[in-house]
Amino acid sequence: MIKVSSKSKTNSVAGALSNIIKEKKEVEVQVIGAGALNQLMKSIIVCRGYLAPLGINIVCIPSFSEIKIDNFDKTGIKILIKTI
Q1: Neighbour-count burial of 40, counting CB atoms closer than 10 A to its CB (0-12 exposed, 13-18 middle, 19+ buried)
Q2: Nearest 5°: phi and psi at 60?
Q3: Distance (Å, whole) CA 5 – CA 7
Q4: Which of 76, 68, 16 lies closest to 46 in space, CA to CA?
Q5: I want to staple 51 with a disulfide (CB 3.0 to 4.6 A). Which of 42, 43, 56, 60 is the partner?
Q6: How far apart are CA 21 and CA 69, in angstroms?
Q7: What is the pLDDT of residue 80?
Q8: For residue 17, what pLDDT is reported?
Q9: Are 50 and 18 in contact (CB under 8 A)?
């Protein structure tokens, strides 16, 4: 599982996603907060740009996840990205 924050670099995350997808056909990503989700979505768009010329198309399946941080329960978003 990859964790993305609001400070994550779009191109770095996109490269990591595309490499994992090429190898394993899917990757799970987790975010907490609007800024992190924004960075992830931009990274998915860039990742798709890397994969499409190779004939690889992807879909995203979102869900909620409960995460414990410093003994507090937080609701995060988990996105499964997989090839179709």
Answers
A1: buried
A2: -120, 135
A3: 5
A4: 16
A5: 56
A6: 28
A7: 98
A8: 97
A9: yes
Instruction: Give the chain's domains with CATH numbers.
Output: 2-83 (3.30.110.20)
Residues (pLDDT < 70) of the chain are none
Q: Which residues have a Cβ under 8 Å from the Cβ of 57 and sit 6 or more positions away?
A: 48, 51, 83, 84
Q: What is the pLDDT of residue 70?
A: 87
pLDDT at 69: 83
The pLDDT value recorded for residue 45 is 97
Q: What is the DSSP string of 23-53?
A: HHSEEEEEE-SHHHHHHHHHHHHHHHHHHGG
- Residues 60 and 79 sit within 8 Å (Cβ to Cβ): yes
pLDDT, position 12: 96
